[in-house]
Acetate--CoA ligase family protein
Amino acid sequence: MTSTTPAASLAALMNPQSVAVIGASEDQTKFGGRLYKTLIRHGYKGTIYPINPGRESLFGIKTFPDITAIPNAPDMVVMALPTGKIKDEIKKCAEKGVKCSIIITSKFSDAGPEGAALEQEIVEIANKHNMRLIGPNCLGLISPANELVLCSSPALNVDALIKSPIGFISQSGALMGTLFDKAHSQGIGFSHCFSIGNQADLELCDFLEMLIHDDGTSIICAYIEGLKSPQRFIELAKLARQKNKPILAVKAGKTEIGSKAAFSHTASLAGDYASLKAICKSQNIILMDDPMAMFLLALSMSKFPGQKIGNATIITTSGGGGALTADALSEQNIPFSEFCTQTKESLAGLFTPGQAFNPIDLGGRRHDVLDTDKISELTAEIVMKDENVDAGLFVLTTAPSVLNTTTSLVTGAERTSKPFIVVMLPGQAANAARGYLVAKNIPFTNTLGEAVAALKNWQEWSGFKASPAVIWPDDLPDISQVKGILNESESKRLMASFGIPVNKEIVVADIAAAVNAASEIGFPMVAKVVSSQIVHKSDVGGVILNIQSVKELEQRLMIMLSNINKTLPGAKIEGFSLQSMESGELELIVGARNDAQFGPQVIIGSGGILVELLKDTLVLPAPVHVETAKQALEELKIAPLLKTYRGRPALDVETVAQTIHRLSLLACRLKNSNFEIEINPLKVKQQGSGCVAVDARAQIN
Amino acid sequence: MTSTTPAASLAALMNPQSVAVIGASEDQTKFGGRLYKTLIRHGYKGTIYPINPGRESLFGIKTFPDITAIPNAPDMVVMALPTGKIKDEIKKCAEKGVKCSIIITSKFSDAGPEGAALEQEIVEIANKHNMRLIGPNCLGLISPANELVLCSSPALNVDALIKSPIGFISQSGALMGTLFDKAHSQGIGFSHCFSIGNQADLELCDFLEMLIHDDGTSIICAYIEGLKSPQRFIELAKLARQKNKPILAVKAGKTEIGSKAAFSHTASLAGDYASLKAICKSQNIILMDDPMAMFLLALSMSKFPGQKIGNATIITTSGGGGALTADALSEQNIPFSEFCTQTKESLAGLFTPGQAFNPIDLGGRRHDVLDTDKISELTAEIVMKDENVDAGLFVLTTAPSVLNTTTSLVTGAERTSKPFIVVMLPGQAANAARGYLVAKNIPFTNTLGEAVAALKNWQEWSGFKASPAVIWPDDLPDISQVKGILNESESKRLMASFGIPVNKEIVVADIAAAVNAASEIGFPMVAKVVSSQIVHKSDVGGVILNIQSVKELEQRLMIMLSNINKTLPGAKIEGFSLQSMESGELELIVGARNDAQFGPQVIIGSGGILVELLKDTLVLPAPVHVETAKQALEELKIAPLLKTYRGRPALDVETVAQTIHRLSLLACRLKNSNFEIEINPLKVKQQGSGCVAVDARAQIN
C-alpha cells in the first residue's frame, strides 16, 4: 500500500506531526482547556500549538495568539468556537495550509437549512485549499494507536488508554465518549475512535476504508444513524470480508420514533432498517441492538481472530445463575454443548455424582480430591478442550472466592484456544475479580444479556455463507421502453419475459369473444373485468373464480356486467381477462423495488392472511442467486410449510427460488428507474409442479 | 393482627432475641468466622452466643463450647457443619428448646434420595420439639429491618445496610447474595431477604405470607425455581393483591435446559412455565426475566406506591442515546407521551426551535436564556407535570456536567409525583452522579435494557383487570360417573351437557341405518367410521366430508368400508357417525387439563396450520369468566382474524368465550381427576352465527 491510496492518505492525515488547539487554556470548565490538557495527558508525541491570545505559555508550552502566527502550518487543528466564528477560522486554517480541521461546534446542518448552507460554504473553503474536515457537530477523535487524543470528554480522565485492534466510528459524539468510558471500565480499548458528526466532508465510509486498511485494526465497530453513501458502504463491507475484518454495527432509528430522534441529532435521514439489515446480512456485517454487547463481542473476536462458534457451555458458581443463563441461551436458540465421553469421565472425578453436566455448577465440586480452585481450573480446561464445545460462558456470583474462582477459570480456559466470556453478576464483592479481568484484557460483562447477545451474534456471523456470484443469462429481453403503471396483463407479460411462471391468460373484448376463446384456457377458469377505471376488481364483483363450463362463463359474465353497471354506472369496460385457475398449497408474496439508499432489492413473504399476522417478510439485495433465495425461504416463518407437512409432500422450493432470482434480475435491469413490482399471490405447488404468479402489478417511473 | 396468626408467629421467629452461631471464630476464611463477624458488624441488638469449644471469647463476647452449655435456649441457631454432623446438632438444638435453626449445609435432598431421607429425619426431629427450620442448602437471612444478618456472603462487606420496603425470597442462596450485592451497589435495599434452600420445613409460601402481613414490606420479590405448594401460592397472591402489595418474581427453568439446572440445584421440580405464567397473569404477579430489572422495578414501585403507568417520556443528554432508547421502548410497545400544548409552549422558550419534543435531547437547550442546569431542572419539571406523561426515563451520557445534569433532572422531577428511572450509560465518568443517586435512593440502572424491562412490566401491571367472580349455573349435570377414554360422540355429549355447542350427530350401526337416518342430519354431511380399534380415522379413509345426497352417502360409505377392509382387514366396525358439516371462518383449539401444580386449566389457541407456526396458545386457570375469556382471545396472535377482517364481518367471539367458560366449569368439576379434554377444531362463524365443536376427545382418570 502506498500513500497514494485514499485510505493511506487519511491514515497519514489522522496521524499528524503537529496539532493546534484553538482556545487552549488551563480552565477545565471550558472545552478548549479540557481538550488541551487531555492531549498532553495522553502523551501526544508531535508538536502542540496552543492558540490563546491572552497567554505566553500553557503547561510550559509556548502559545500563539492566532493560527496565522504559527511559523509552520500545523497538520491538524481542532476548534470549538461559537458557530458564527467557524467560517473565518476555517478560512484562516485553509489558507495557512492546515491539512485537516476538526470542528466540534454544532448548529450547522443539524439545525436546519441555514446551518446547512453555512456548512456547505465551509466545506467549499476547505476543499479549495485541500484541507479536510471532521465534523462539524462532533466530539473529535481518540487514537490510542497514535497516542493522539483530540476530545474533551471526561471519559479521558483515566490513567492510561487501553490499546486494542478495535476501531470505532461513531455518528454520535456523546455516545462515542460514553461508550469509550463504559468500554474502558470493562478493559476494552481501541486502536482509533472517530466521532464523525455531520460528515460535511470526511464521512463514515472514509474512516471505514482507512480502518479496513489499517494494520493495527482487526475489528471495526460503528454506531450508525444514517449512511451518506450506502453503495460505497457495501463495497467497503465486501473489502472488509476479503481482509477478514469483521464489521460490527449498531443502528439507531430502527423504529419511527427512534428515527425522529436520530434525524434531529445529526441531520441524517435514517434509512429503512429492513434494507440495511438485508445489506448487513448479505455482507456478514454484525448488526446489533446494544453498543456494549457490540464491544464485548469485538473484544472477544479480536482475542480469537477468525474463530467461529456454534454451541456454548456454561460454568457457574451458582445453580440459580446457571438456570437463568441456560434460559437466556435457550431463548436465543444458542445450542448447548453435549460433552464427549472423555470429558464426562474426567469431570466425574472432580464433581459429586450427577453434577458434571452442562451447565456446570461449581457448587458440585468434590471437597475430597483437590483444592476447589484447582478443580475450577481443571474444569475450565477439560470442558473447553472438549471437541463439542465452541465457546464458554463463565457466570460468577458473589462468594468469598470470586477472585480465586475467576483466576482459576481463566487460567484453565487459556490453556485452550477456545473463546470464553465472563459474566460478573456481583456488585462490589467482585471488584477485585473485575480488576484482574481488566488487567488481563479478558472479555467480561456485568450483564448477562450482553454476553448472550454477543454469543448469539458471533454464532450468526460464524454461520455466514457468501452468496455465489449471480450469472446473468443471455436471454433477457430489452425492457428499456417499459414505463408507467402496468395493468395485470402487462405486468405478467413483463415477468414472463424474464422467465417467471405466470398463469395462462387471454384478454378478450366482449362476452362473445370470451365464449369463443374459452377452450384455449380450459376449465376451471377465472374471469376478471378489464377496465382502467376499475382498480379494485373484487370490490365491484369484477372477479369470477372457478368457472366450470362455457355456459357458466357466459352466464356469469352477464351477471358481472349487470352488477358493475349498477355499482359503477358508465364505467368503461375494455374487456375480460380469461385465466387458468391455479391451485396451490401455499401463497407467497414476491415483490421488488428500488430502495433509495441501497438500490434494487427483492422482498419475499408469506401471502394470504399470514402476511399480516406473521409480519413474515425478508428483504434481499438484488441480484439474488438461486441458492441465496433458497436460504432466504428457509428463514421465513412459514418455512415449515414449504417442507413435507402433515403428510403432504414438500413444495416446489426450487421454482420459487428461480422466480425470486429472475425477479431480482428484472429489478437490476430497472435500477435506473423508481419502480415497484409485486406478485401477489405466487401460488406454490407440490415438488415438481412449480409455482405460478396469478396476480401481479408493476409501476416503473 | 395477633401473634396467633402463622404470619405473625413467623415474623416473631425471624426477629429473635438471641442467636447462637455454631462454629463462630475470627477466621475470615471460614463460614462461621465470616457469619459471626457480619452479624456483629451490622449491629444486631439481641444476645449473641458464639459456639466454639476452643475459645473463651470472640470479639469480646463470651463463647460457649456447645449449644447445651448456653444457660438459656437461644431463639435462633445458625449452622454450617458438615452434612454428617447436622442431625446430632439439630437434635441438641431441638431438645434445648431452640425456636428456629438455619442449616446452611448442602447435600441433602439436593443430592439425591439418601440426602432426602436424612433431610426428612431432621425435619421430624425438629417438628417433634416445635423447632422450625430454614434450609438446608441455603444462605441464611439478611434483615435490615431487624438489624439481623445471618449470612456469610461477602455481599455484606458494606458499611451499612440499606433499608427499604422491599422483601426478597430466594430459592437460590448464591443468587440471594449476588443480587443483594448488585442491588446494594445501585442503592437498592431491603426489609428482609430470605434464602430458603431446600424448603425442608419453612417454605417460600411461609415467608411470602409473613411479608404480605409485614408492615415494613410493601413490595415482595421472589426468585423461584419450583413451588412446593402452588395452591397456597395462589391464595397468598390474592391476599397480596387485596393488601395492594405487588409481587415480582423471576422464575428459573423456563426452558428445558434451564429446568435441568434448576433441578440439580435445589431438587425443585420446575413447573410448567406456561402454567405459572397463567397464574401470575391472573393474580397480577409481575413475572420477569431479569432479577436486576425486578429490583429496579421494585424500588421504583416502592417510591410510588400504587402508581400506574402507561406511556413514557425520554429526557437524554445525547440524541444518539435518545434514539437507542426510543428504539428500545418502541420494540416493547411502550407508548410515547405526546406533550400537551402548554408543555410544548413552556419548552419552546428553553430549547432551540424544533428540539422540544419527546425524546428530549438536552443538547438542544438554548444557551441564551438560563443556566443550562436550570433548564434541565425546569425541563424535567415541565415534562413530568404534563398530564400526558406517566413516567420518565432519564438517559445520561458521559459529559463533564453529568453530575449537575443528574441533580437538576432529579430535582425537577421530584417536584412532581410521577415516577422516573435514571439510566447511567457512562463508565467511571458518572461515578459521582451514581453516588448522588444511591444517596438519594433514586431508582437507576447502568443498563438500558433493565430500565425498559422495568417500565414494560410496570405498564402491564398497571393494565391489570381482575377477573370477575365466576357465577356457577344451576343446570350443570352430575358427571361424577364419567371416566376413561371417551370416543368422539361421548366427548361431545359430555361437552354438550355443559352447554358447549357441538355439531349434530347420529350414530348408526350400518349403511342401511345411515341411509334411513340421513334426513335427520341433512346435507352437506360428514360421515365418520366408529370403531374402538381405529384411533386415527382420517389415516384409513374413515372420514368423508361434504356428502351432498343420500345416494352419495350410501356409495361413499361402501367405498369407505371396502378401503378399511383392505388396510385393516378384520377391524371391527361398530357403525358410522353422521354429522352435520359445519363451515367456519376460523378454527380454534380449546382444551382443558388438570395441571399437577395449579389444578384445572383451559388452554386456547389457534387451530389448523397456524397452531404450530404461531405457537399461539394461552393457558387460563379454571374457572374462566366469560369476560376473562374474551380478554384472552384478544391476546391470541390471531386476534385480528376474530374482528372485521378484509371486508368480512367480525366473528362470534361471544359464543367462543361462552364455550371457554363452559369448558372451564367442566374442568373444575373434574378437578379430582387426572384429565385431558380437547376440542379440535372449534369452528368459529360470523357474529350471531356462533361456533361449534366438530371434533373432540376426552380422557378422565
Summary: Chain B is about 40% helix and 20% strand.
